[in-house]
């Protein structure tokens, strides 16, 4: 249900009246000010034309969040939309609805805001631009709207000039601004320290294009000295370039910086059109940032009438053994492959190829035995011998298996075990090649019973010159998502752009990578505080396929040549199934390792992947997070806690439990001597009976955490 209330505009002009009165407006209303508050009155948004330049300001409980900041766009080869404006219309309304997500962290979501839409007309060009603000209890969303009009039909963006003028030198949790990757470790510092730390923050990646010594990515998490938590991001990124932020480290003003295309343009726009929403989430409680649904609410409702084919997934996969170097994606050790010129039946296999029929059956057996939904298989298709770093256009065809991968037999076997196989489409960044093969690839999936695909875009984009986050690639990701929906296929996008809440509109987008995931634990390791930051940054726009559950934390146990280790205790690996939200959760380690720790593995089997309710029990970015989540359609709750390299004692109460009921709590915790470096596999499991009046004190070892299942007694 929803309620929408419209209020009459302060003034509005008919087209015939507009030109005669425009000069009067410019003379008599050089400064126009508007104000709108959040439904609870705690946030105040002010809009003002200052000498014809649109500006806005945001305050929370009377405290400055965003000081007076300029709005507008710089255009190529024409007058920019930066100034010379008069306000020619204003509309306000209130909106309140409750909607039900297909999957998510809560059964229902409230979408409640007050809105101000200001129409601006530029005297010199007679062009019109609208700025729409929506003020929620937890933050602000605003966007540019370009109505269809004779004076503004097509235009090219040179740069968007949206500012976020901060009120101080805030503590920031930041990634280097980059057109091609988000796979950096988060740096925690003051904004004034960004420039000095940037060089060391830009570490190697398969494809990367850092653009500035003070460029930052979104979502950007900030904390002010007076205790305000601020998150800046964007929502509903469609047919537009991905936004980064350029920091002026003298004034503490952030300005939007769009990703350029192959010729340097930052947006090719045809009216009518809208920009993505620019978002500012704010609270004096860290947990409120984690619980915000503002980014989702700024996206459109789902476009699908039938969503019965979209279901959360818990899976295992032929993956970690290749990531660690134990096995290979490729079937042979050949190089310089031309895909249609090699008869793989006649070449010598390397003996290390993981995606072979017998081995995949072992994973299917393990999945079936433990109640998992699916098995991901990477390296099943021809072309992996020289797939990376060659800038090949025709690198994969997405339908031809290696000789040792029997598609029909594995379909039959998986079906007999009530298990699905998840398709893998690595594109190697060759976007046009993927689009050429997309119909046949999805038809192949339909034929053989695959209902989910993991896509990948490792390496530089082909055609060269384009970037992972430019407008052309944003449109490609959207094309794949919509094409997949036509075939009733769910998508888990890796190396694609970070999410902006589009899963509300397109709920077949059940996962994204778009950050340093668990794979980096095999590439030198993630910082111990990594998972205490990601929910405040990367996960603001949508779930992450983080691929947790690594029990054997020494990678050398699988590959003696690899001395990396997982910067986490085993107990925290369990906690990540609760703290790193996703409707797509992988048990990423090898079956033989899980078989050695079946007592701890029980939590992964039990934990839900879809939820009716979510609580944040404790939170401080970079230090710790403790979540409690209620399983979809059940009375069971699950708690997960992750902490940084310092360790801590967690104190929580269970008042979220239902009154008058008893629950059996199974606690999977770090042992007293556990440590992510020195003793990561030391864990304890204990059971006790609890109620909503129970208070628990639990050790979190350095780089550790704990997981708790709470099952109603007698169930």
Overview features:
alpha+beta, 37 strands, 11-stranded antiparallel β-sheet, 8-stranded antiparallel β-sheet, 715 residues, disordered N terminus
Tell me about this structure:
With 715 residues, the chain is an alpha+beta fold. Helices cover 17% and strands 33% of the residues. The chain has 13 helices and 37 strands. Strands 1, 7, 8, 9, 10, 13, 14, 16, 17, 21 and 22 form an 11-stranded antiparallel sheet that branches. Strands 2-3-4-5-12-19-18-15 form an 8-stranded antiparallel sheet, with no helix packed on it. It has a 7-stranded parallel sheet with strand order 28-27-26-25-24-23-29. Strand 25 (420-426), helix 8 (431-447) and strand 26 form a beta-alpha-beta unit. Helix 6 runs parallel beside helix 7. The radius of gyration is 26 Å and the shape is globular. Mean pLDDT is 95; it is low at 1-30.
């Amino acid at each position: 249900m929803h309620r929408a209330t419209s209020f009459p505009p302060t003034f509005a002009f008919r087209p015939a009246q507009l030109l005669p009165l425009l000069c009067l407006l410019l003379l008599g209303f050089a400064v126009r000010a508007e104000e709108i508050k959040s439904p609870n009155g705690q946030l105040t948004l002010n809009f003002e034309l200052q000498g014809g330049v649109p500006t806005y300001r945001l305050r929370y409980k009377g405290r400055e969040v965003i000081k007076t900041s300029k709005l507008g766009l710089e255009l190529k080869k024409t007058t920019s939309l930066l100034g010379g404006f008069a306000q020619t219309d204003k509309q306000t309304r209130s909106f309140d609805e409750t909607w039900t997500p297909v999957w998510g962290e809560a059964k229902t979501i409230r979408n409640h805001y007050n809105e101000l839409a200001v129409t601006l007309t530029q005297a010199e060009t007679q062009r019109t631009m609208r700025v729409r603000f929506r003020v929620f209890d937890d933050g602000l969303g605003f966007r540019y709207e370009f109505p269809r009009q004779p004076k503004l039909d097509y235009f090219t963006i040179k740069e968007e000039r949206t500012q976020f003028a901060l009120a101080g030198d805030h503590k920031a949790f930041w990634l280097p601004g980059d057109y091609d990757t988000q796979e950096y470790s988060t740096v925690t510092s003051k904004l004034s320290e960004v420039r000095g730390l940037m060089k060391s923050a830009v570490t190697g990646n398969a494809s990367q294009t850092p653009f500035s010594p003070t460029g930052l990515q979104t979502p950007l998490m900030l904390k002010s000295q007076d205790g305000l938590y601020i998150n800046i991001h964007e929502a509903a990124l469609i047919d537009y370039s991905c936004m980064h932020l350029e920091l002026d480290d003298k004034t503490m003003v952030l300005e939007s910086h769009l990703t350029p295309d192959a010729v340097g343009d930052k947006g090719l726009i045809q009216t009518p059109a809208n920009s993505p929403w620019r978002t500012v989430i704010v609270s004096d409680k860290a947990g409120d940032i984690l619980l915000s649904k503002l980014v989702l609410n700024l996206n459109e409702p789902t476009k699908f009438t039938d969503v019965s084919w979209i279901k959360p997934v818990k899976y295992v996969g032929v993956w970690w053994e290749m990531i660690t170097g134990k096995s290979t994606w490729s079937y042979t050790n050949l190089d310089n492959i031309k895909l249609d010129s090699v008869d793989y039946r006649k070449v010598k296999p390397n003996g290390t190829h993981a995606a072979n029929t017998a081995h995949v059956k072992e994973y299917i057996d393990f999945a079936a035995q433990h109640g998992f939904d699916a098995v991901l298989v990477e390296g099943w298709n021809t072309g992996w011998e020289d797939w990376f770093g060659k800038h090949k256009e025709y690198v994969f065809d997405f339908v031809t298996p290696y000789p040792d991968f029997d598609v029909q037999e594995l379909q039959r076997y998986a079906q007999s075990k009530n298990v699905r196989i998840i398709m893998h489409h690595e594109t190697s960044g060759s976007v046009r090649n993927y689009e050429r093969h997309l119909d046949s690839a999805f038809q192949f999936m339909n034929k053989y019973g695959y209902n989910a695909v993991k896509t990948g875009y490792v390496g530089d984009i082909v055609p060269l010159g384009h970037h992972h986050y430019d407008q052309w690639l944003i449109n490609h990701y959207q094309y794949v998502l919509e094409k997949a929906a036509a075939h009733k296929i769910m998508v888990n996008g890796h190396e694609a752009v970070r999410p902006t809440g589009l899963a509300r509109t397109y709920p077949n987008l059940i996962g994204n990578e778009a950050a340093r995931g668990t794979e980096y634990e095999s590439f030198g390791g993630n910082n111990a505080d990594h998972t205490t930051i990601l929910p405040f940054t990367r996960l603001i726009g949508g779930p992450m396929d983080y691929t947790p559950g690594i029990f054997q934390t020494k990678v050398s146990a699988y590959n003696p040549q690899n001395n990396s280790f997982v910067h986490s205790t085993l107990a925290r690996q369990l906690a990540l199934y609760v703290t790193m939200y996703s409707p797509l959760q992988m048990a990423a380690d090898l079956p033989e390792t899980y078989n050695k720790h079946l007592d701890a593995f029980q939590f992964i089997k039990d934990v839900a992947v879809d939820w009716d309710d979510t609580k944040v029990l404790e939170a401080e970015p970079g230090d710790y997070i403790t979540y409690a989540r209620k399983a979809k359609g059940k009375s069971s709750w699950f708690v997960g806690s992750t902490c940084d390299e310092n360790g801590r004692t967690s104190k929580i109460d269970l008042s979220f439990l239902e009154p008058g009921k008893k629950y059996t709590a199974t606690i999977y915790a770090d042992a007293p001597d556990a440590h992510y470096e020195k003793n990561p596999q030391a864990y304890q499991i204990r059971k006790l009976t609890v109620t909503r009046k129970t208070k628990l004190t639990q050790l979190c070892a350095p780089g550790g955490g704990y997981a708790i299942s709470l099952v109603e007694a007698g169930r």
